[in-house]
Specification:
The structure holds two protein chains of two kinds. By secondary structure, chain A is mainly α. Chain A is built from two helices and no strands. Among the domains of chain B are: 81 residues; 78 residues, no CATH class. Classes of the chains: A mainly alpha, B mainly alpha.
């Protein structure tokens, strides 16, 4: 009884090995390649985030300058008017 | 035999566990799929980053152009009013001076302001000078000059109302019992009769003799304060003359 049980276990392990051993596995080098790619993607995402912030800041700066320019033109017109009255 | 069976059992178990572990590692097909997916994703992100960089470069150029246009506008504005750095600085210093003076005068009581009323004219002269400067046409200075003028006008108005309380029109003796002593004693004047010399000294052009005031005379009431040395000296001189005038004439020498 015990002999047959041991035999069954050994046969089962052998069959399982056969089943899983048929397909090939990735090498350590290939796994590193995958990890490097993931790291590159993370880095690109950070760069994009930073670039989007920079873009938003520039858009705001340009809007501010537009407002200042508009005010400056108004000031010029007002000053001209007042100088004529002086 | 028993030992051999046991050994075989252990070996089988070990083998079984390794097989399970091996089953969890990535297969080559799975790896290939992941590589393709991530590569595509990376390429998308690179394209996105490049597009963003192009946007940022363009925006930087636009920003520089705006800055230049703004500088040009400011330069034109200053040229319009003849403003150079040194003259702007001097102009602002003058405005600061006017502001400080008005702050000082605003803190005075009515009596103190009345005493320093000539300084309001001095401030007005400074303001008039500022208004003649072309820089005052600039909105930032125009509004400020206007505000200072308003403050000065407000001080003048308060001075006008103070003037009413800082002058006194003499009534009649019969009705008002007005003499310098009684006027100084009035609560709204000094509430202190002994300060009558201040009214006398403040109106020397009208009052030659402090015993003689006339109905209708408009007397300036100087701010309430202790008698000065000049006030006291005038009083002593007054009493000496009065005593001399009231002293009986000296008897002629007997022959």
């Amino acid at each position: 009884m015990k002999k047959s049980l041991a035999g069954v276990i050994v046969a089962g392990a052998f069959l399982a090995t056969l089943a899983t051993g048929c397909s090939s596995k990735t090498t350590a080098e290939q796994m590193k390649q995958l990890d490097d790619l993931k790291a590159e993607i993370s880095s690109l995402q950070r760069d994009i985030s930073a670039k989007e912030s920079e873009k938003a800041a520039l858009i705001k700066a340009i809007a501010d300058k537009d407002a200042q320019l508009s005010q400056c033109e108004k000031d010029k017109a007002l000053a001209q008017e007042r100088l004529q009255g002086m | 035999m028993k030992v051999l069976n046991r050994l075989m059992l252990v070996a089988a178990l070990v083998l079984f566990v390794s097989v399970i572990a091996a089953a969890q590692e990535m297969t080559k097909e799975e790896w290939q799929k992941q590589i393709s997916d991530y590569t595509a994703r990376r390429d998308d992100l690179k394209n996105k980053l490049n597009a963003l960089q192009a946007d940022v470069d363009q925006l930087k150029k636009d920003d520089a152009a705006k800055a230049e246009a703004l500088q040009k506008c400011n330069d034109e504005l200053m040229a319009l009013v003849g403003g150079e750095a040194a003259s702007v600085k001097a102009f602002e210093a003058m405005l600061d001076q006017i502001d400080a003076k008005l702050n000082e005068l605003s803190r005075l009581s009515d009596q103190e302001l009345w005493a320093r009323r000539a300084e309001l004219d001095a401030v007005q002269q400074m303001l008039d000078g500022v208004k003649k400067n072309k820089l005052s046409a600039l909105p930032k200075y125009y509004d400020r000059v206007k505000e200072e003028q308003n403050r000065l006008d407000a001080l003048r108005r308060s001075l006008e109302s103070a003037e009413v309380s800082m002058t006194y029109t003499v009534g009649t003796w019969a009705k008002d019992r007005d003499c310098l002593w009684n006027i100084a004693k009035k609560p709204k004047i000094y509430d202190n009769a002994f300060l009558w010399p201040k009214i006398w000294q403040g109106n020397r052009d009208q009052i030659k003799n402090p015993d003689v005031i006339h109905p209708g005379q408009k007397l300036t009431i100087p701010p309430k304060a202790d008698l000065t040395n000049e006030d006291k000296s005038a009083v002593r001189s007054y009493w000496r003359k009065k005593q001399a005038a009231e002293a009986p004439p000296a008897a002629p020498p007997k022959k």
